[in-house]
Structure formats: structure tokens, C-alpha cells
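Question:
Write out your own:
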Amino acid sequence: MDPVEEIKLRLDITEYIGRHVNLKKSGRNFKGLCPFHQEKTPSFYVFPESQSWHCFGCDRGGDIYSFLMEFNGINFRTALEELARAAGVELRPRTPEELEAESEADRLRHVMEMATDYYHTLLLTSPQARDARAYLKKRGFTRETIETFKLGYSLDEWHALRSYLLDKGVSVEEQVKAGLIVQKESGATYDRFRNRVMIPIHDRRGRVIAFGGRVLSAEDQPKYMNSPQTPIFDKSQVLFGYHLAGRAIREADEAVIVEGYMDVMIPHQAGFANIVAPMGTALSEAHLKLLQRLTRRFVLALDPDAAGIRATLRGLETARETLDREWQPIFDPRGLVGYEGRLKAEIRAVMLPQGLDPDELILDDPQRWASLIAQSQPIVRFYFEQLLQQENPDEPKGKARIIDAMLPLLRDIADSVEREAYIQEIALKLGLDAQTLMDRLRARERAEAVRRQAAVAPQRQALRSIDADIEAHLLATLMRTPELLARVDTLLTECQLEPITTNDFSTNCRYIWSAWLEISEHPEIDLTDLLPLEQIERIQTWVSTPPPDFTIEQLERDVAYTVLRIRERHLREEHQQLNTLIIEAQNQGDVIGQQYAEAMHSLALRKRRIQQALSDYTPSQKKKERL
């Protein structure tokens, strides 16, 4: 039996999710407060019969794997291994190369833990660490926080750590690979970190993978030094503090993004745990995808100096390019319909008082920090104020540049009333008529709609019959012809439907899809890091099978039709679940909750759109004759 299915048979989803969510019996099912968004009335349900879960508040759902992946922010391979251990299922052994790479990573993480313990003990007990202890005390660190983050100290010696680890059986080669010592061309080595406060950097699972070192002497440079890239550490993929912030971010439904280590640790000490920081780099796509699993509300809280503002604006651009969108129809005078993406996230910015970092501000007045975050500016207003300082709003060309820079942000605002209010505000400050700005925005939207229509121009094509396993058929077609994905996503958005997402797949196909996307974005990742060998062999069979002799347009419409059929099937299942909950509530004399009505309305709307799209894509006899 497929180990994925065997694990699902051995583990009961209700019992497993019940370890993380307080579930109460509701008829034949169980309900509780959703762990993925804030709510006061339970809309999170577990269905024992289908061994699935669904939240009718945030419209997430899936099986035991998807729950663990969402809850812990891990990939499928990691979830599979964890559940296999819990179920007592033995996974197929990895290849010698995979085992070697995995063994090396485990060994390097073990070396990093040894170094962490060594540095931490030095900080707490060594006479040479007196200045380091004094520095941390001056910065406001308590003993509890020092132990929570396992802070340490590196001796002001060239070979202290090297000698310690050699005595523990760690080779010079392993120390170099871990980034702990530096090897010169001559072969000589020396400790990378010397006379620094050592800050362990953890991965999402709380394992130490790198260090940041803060100088104690003003003569030493740089002020902060990070570990180099290693087989277990890539700073563009890591957010400092993420391993401790996940639950707090979910509970607050907000992630605060700051600049440095201290800006995470001191707030955490004061009870503000929903804070993370990039590793000395600009906010990356990988960072935002990590956070998007937990919340759709982001507050950029960076330094008020020029560098901090530039970092904020870079983070804004990355966020706009990365975060999910919802698609809404727009029209031009000729009746052409296009779709504009509205950002499904709220991005805000907070300007810190001049000369104060978050840690200093919180130590001085924690309530002031809370107020600043609560009063953070919408990013539209923040960006506009920065543009007013960079351009001359009194000059016509300056006005035009400001407006052109603001248009993408204005288009991203989903609420039309909010969008118009910002247009009024911007027009007033620039001394323009609001209608002029509105017309410019609509002209830009119409131009982009026409461009998209011309680029797609879909023609009605005959569809071939699809395989019995339509999810596998969909995945196989996309993997053989990757360029289809963008084309089909465009067709779906024209029907006011979401592009292809993880929710279009179930169990095995869902995780193959996720892995394929991750490999597409990060080709340096090996597929064996994400999937078991059985699934990899399945993919290899798909890709090696010759594609049908179809044009790209025929394949495009075939894939679109397949997606619609899958969604129709999923909607029927969701409708059945919802009907069951309503009947159970009525039998128990409960008034049907608002979440039921909203969920049923949303379901009906999606059903109508899918049925309409299916009627357009299904080749009736008359359509066949015209073709």
C-alpha cells in the first residue's frame, strides 16, 4: 500500500488535530476555533467519516497532511516523515546519495548544537565573558531571555572553538562546512567568530543552523557578522525568530517585520512575540511565503533613516509581487472584460521615533510600542508621503511621477470605497481634481485589460476526453508543458475564478503540485527533499510519457476544463459537508449560525461561476459543427 494512504488509515484525523485544537462534538463531526485565523465563533470542522477538515471562515481545508503542513509551516516531505513516525509506517529507503546528504545535514546541525552549548556555557560562566554579560545587561536582557534564545559568547582567541570541537570528535572539514571556522588557501584555519555575543539562528523547526555575532569592541568590524551560506543555512530563506513567533502571529493575525536581532528578542521578552527579522537582507519572496501561511496582515517597522525607508519600499515591492491576489472584473468602452488583481493582504508601515530602535522603545515604554503598531499607516499613505519628499509636487512633471508611482498601489486596494477615499486624499494634497486621478487610474486599467485580452484571445477548441484520474491528468499535462500554467491561470481569472491552487488537488497530487512549484522557483532544491520515492517515480513516468499531438491552444483549454471539473467535484463535497452541519444544527434546535449562511452564499456563487465556465468550455454538438 502507498505509505501516504497507509498513514491516513492508521492515524485518526480527529484525534490528531485534537492535540492542537480544542474540539467539541457537533453531531457526527467535531468543531473548534480555527487555528489559522482569529474567530470567536467556531467555524473549523473535522469530519471523521471523510478524514478531512475544513474551516468555513477562512476557506481552508484538506487532510491530516495539509493540517500539519499549515500548522507547523513545513513541506510535505517533512510532514510525511513526522506522521510516518507517529503511525509506525516505514517509508521506502532513500538512495545512497540522499542518505549521505541527509546524514551530512543532520551531522552539521548536531555540530551547530554543540557550538551553541559551548558558546552559551562560556557566556554564563567564563570570566572572559564579563564584558558580554555586562553588554547584555545594559541592553536590557533578562536571564530568561538569554536562555530562551540560547545566547552565547565567543572567546577572543583564534582557535578556541576549533580546539573544543576537535576534542569532541568534530573534524576540521565539518567545522568549515558548518561555517564555524575559516580555512585560508594555505590550509590554515581560524575561528570565524571571536570576542562576540553569539546569537543562534534557528530554522522553522527550531534547530540551530547558523550564528549571528555582535561585536563588543568598537574597533572590531563588522558590527554584526552572520554565518556564511552552508548546506543547512541560506539567509534568504530564514527569518530570525520565526520558530518562536508562529503561534503569536496566528493569535494576533499580524506579523511585525523589524530589522535586527535585538529588535526581535527584546520585544519577545516584553510579550510582543509576533515579530521576525530578515537576516541582514531585503525582505524576500521566501520570507513572505513563510509568513503568509500564518497571516495576511503585515506591518513593516524599520528604521526612520534613509536606509530604513529604502528597505521598507523594497519590502513593499517584494510583497506586492509575492502575495496572493483576488481578481475582479474591469471594463473598457468597447465592452471588453479584463480582470484586475487586488492584493489579498493588508500591508502597513510604522515610522519609529528618530534615533530609537524597537528594542530601545519597548524597554523605555512598552505601551508606546503597542500604540505605534496599532496606529501603523496603510502602506498607500506611507508611500505617498515618501514620494512627496522625493519629488517636487509643485511641478507638473513631479505630480505626474508621483501619480504614476501611486497607481499600482491604488489598483491593489480591494475595497472600492477605500480606494476612492485615497484618491480624494492624494488629489487634494497635489491640488488636482479627484476625477482626473480616477480617470488616469481607469485608463491604466483599461489599457492593461485590452493588452491581456489581446495576449490571450482564446478560441473555442475541441476537447478530448480526460483520464479517469483527472487530478493526475492535470498534473501530468502541466509538467510536460509548464508554459500552460500561466495561460490557464489567465483563462480562469477571466471567468472570475482563482488561478490553479493547492486546493485543486487532494492528498498525493496536492503535495506533488506543491513540490513541483517549489522546484520551479528553487531549482537548486532536490526533489527527494520534498517527496517520497514512490511519488518521484510517478512524476518521472508522467514526464517521460509523450504528450498528445495537440496544439498549445487545445492543451490550454483541456487543462482549463479539467480544473473546472475538479472544482465542481470539490464543491459538491463541500456542499454535502455544509448540508450535514445545517441539518445537525436544526435537529439540535440550534439557530443556523452566520458562518453557515455566508459559507452557503459563497459556495453558491462559486458553483454558478464554475457551471457558467463549464458551459463555455464544454464542446456542445453545435460548437463542434462550427469547429
